[in-house]
Amino acid sequence: MFDKFFKPQSVAVVGASARPGKIGNSILVNIVNYGFTGEIYPINPEAGEILGLKAYPSLSAVPDNIDLVVICVPPVAVPGVIEDCGRKNVNSVLIITAGFKEIGHEGAKLERDIVKRMKELGIRSIGPNCVGLVSTEAKLNVTFASSQAQARQGNIGFFSQSGALCVAILDWAMLQGIGFSKFISLGNKADINETDMLVALGEDPQTQVILGYIESVDDGARFMQAAERISQHKPIILAKSGGTAAGAKAASSHTGALAGSEQAFKAAFKQTGIIRANSIEQLFDYAMAFSYMPVPEGNSIAILTNSGGPGIIAADAVEHSMLKMASLLKDTIDGLRPKLPSTAALYNPVDIIGDGDHERYRIALDALLKDDNVNNILVILTPTATARSAEVAKVLVSSTAQTKKPIAATFIGGYSIADGAKILVDAKIPFYPFPERAVDAMDRLVFYKSHKDRVASRTEPYPVEPKTVDKLFAEALEKHHNELGETEARAVIQAYGFRVPKSILATSVEHAAKVANEIGYPVVMKIASPDILHKSDIGGVKVGVGSPEEVRETYHQLVVNAVRRMPNAEILGVLVQEMVKGGKEVILGMKRDPQFGPMVMFGLGGIYVEVLKDVSFRIAPFTVEDAREMVNEIRSAALLRGFRGEKPVDMDAIVECLMRLSQLVVDFRNIIELDINPLIVFPKGVQPIALDARLAIERPEEAVGTKIWKRGGRF
Ligand code: COA
């Protein structure tokens, strides 16, 4: 489908203009100047000639077939042009025109109307409200970007939801010598969207690195499927803006309060191996790293420098990354010792000291390239009278030609390093002005490598009881309850294999005393009401109730508290529950994200969970490896691994609970929010136990039906 966009034999520009300064003129100038060898048809009511090309009054007047139509006429004229495309059997259209969805109601309607009509006519379109596209392979530049910023041929396929960013990145790339295979401004993505483009670039042989800027994703499940498959063979680097806590509004569970759309994107990117750029600067830095450097064999890095400070800064940055400082082989150190001054540092960072010249750089770099313990190299230069940047840059150029190890350069300075920087840029050696940025970019190469190497194990679904859950949901909906009470919520998770404490609903004081005897002392007592969600807040929970007398007293007290604080609440009685001793509290939860579907949360439990926000998220369904990462990536994971002689908790048991929860929320798409809080976890040998659970479901008629991501699936 994208051949007509990327490799058209003929292009018509509707709205082509002879008047310089008009968009219809700039586009035509770019097409001609960039060297497109196919047919070019300017379309203009005045016809005549534009830029020496015969112009036609309409598409219908063109005698030949047209592969690609570019529309740059005012919005009101666009529907007419679409009809003309239909008559001419054109099926690929690029709409530059602005004035659609982005301007409000009326524009949105016009956009919907033209999309509907294009669908009927079998037309696929990019835009509207876009800058256009470049296909270097076809020598096609249908953009109105500055004619000075002509994309060079290269291996990056770039797409962007922001037109402004498109022209900025083109301009920057010119200066950096960065080249593109394809370059696409998506605009309003009324038809072709980010996932279509991901797939197109994933299949494009000229594209080795996919770079993009997105603000939203239309279909999270499809996006993740595509990204997961493509990132196995091509790195995907995306800048994503618009991360807000909007999703947290109106949430009634802890998970709901913590799970915003930003968290969903973070999780989706992590799971599918997408490299996230958090700023435009990072987008540029990573683009250079992935475009120029090979994926490393491993994560060890050697730093070569002529000054201590920047070497240490780089080593510090390594400390906070997935990279690790390489420990150099004895042979490397012994080989360097006689060749470098006695004051040089021979260990990593290798410091050839302030009077080092390019020969010293060559000696040290050669040694590091030969060292099998070194997977990545960062060469730092601060300009001195002896270390001339151009000479050092030439050393790098000759050395990188002979290696498969990623090598990046940081020449710190301005005026004195300009010559060297130019040599590096021309030779396609990634050049960063500061060591932290170089380390950050190289760290992302390592992340990508580790994601590619990750073998996702397939797990069989657990034998569970979905029928029980069906029944519980049906009963709740019959009673018009969207939120399940504690007893029902616990029964739901129990049906999916969670251990829950023995608990019995007591409906009178005497009944409570009787069931407490059956359960065994001490017990926990909780007010039972479908209307009271935060029981502790109203004095509705008492732990450690140790005798029949205390049970009777507590029953009374809990009911009084509830009646006083929530007079309208329906009170079913008091839940008498086995008291669990020891263990550590964690929280498991889920919130359905409108774009990505079920988003599962893990964190340390307790009342501070919303304040500390020390939680991790993944989109279900996820793998055992994802679940393990989730547990390990929270800041307080060390507390679970055993602290000051404490026994570690059973991490595998937590992973199993997460997998069971993933299964539950994938099976039941009508669960919109869920908290298992706390889940008490113990050292190996004792099964975790879910003390409390809360769960909200959607009525079938309200169901938004977010699609579920199918792992490893094709589409
Ligand atoms: N078929 C062929 N040509 C047509 C036409 C039609 N149906 N309707 C108009 N034209 C011609 C006009 O005669 C004019 O040619 P001329 O210069 O020889 O007179 C040319 O097309 C352009 O029409 P005009 O009415 O002058 O519009 P414009 O150039 O001022 O604006 C757009 C047109 C598309 C550039 C403008 O509507 C627009 O959307 N601008 C913003 C684009 C943008 O920012 N995109 C997003 C970037 S992120």
Could you give the topology of this structure?
Layout: H1 3-6, E1 10-14, H2 23-33, E2 39-43, E3 49-50, E4 53-54, E5 68-71, H3 78-87, E6 92-95, H4 105-121, E7 124-126, E8 132-135, E9 140-143, E10 152-160, H5 163-176, E11 179-185, H6 194-203, E12 209-214, H7 220-230, E13 236-240, H8 254-258, H9 261-272, E14 275-277, H10 280-292, E15 300-305, H11 308-319, E16 324-325, H12 330-336, E17 350-351, H13 358-370, E18 376-381, H14 389-400, E19 407-411, H15 418-426, E20 431-432, H16 435-453, H17 466-478, E21 483-484, H18 486-495, E22 503-506, H19 509-519, E23 523-528, E24 541-545, H20 548-565, E25 573-578, E26 584-593, E27 597-604, H21 609-612, E28 615-619, H22 624-633, H23 637-640, H24 651-667, E29 671-681, E30 689-690, E31 693-697
Parallel strand pairs: 1-2, 1-5, 5-6, 6-7, 10-11, 10-12, 12-13, 13-14, 15-16, 15-17, 15-18, 18-19, 19-20
Antiparallel strand pairs: 3-4, 8-9, 8-11, 21-31, 22-25, 23-24, 23-25, 26-27, 26-29, 27-28, 29-30, 29-31
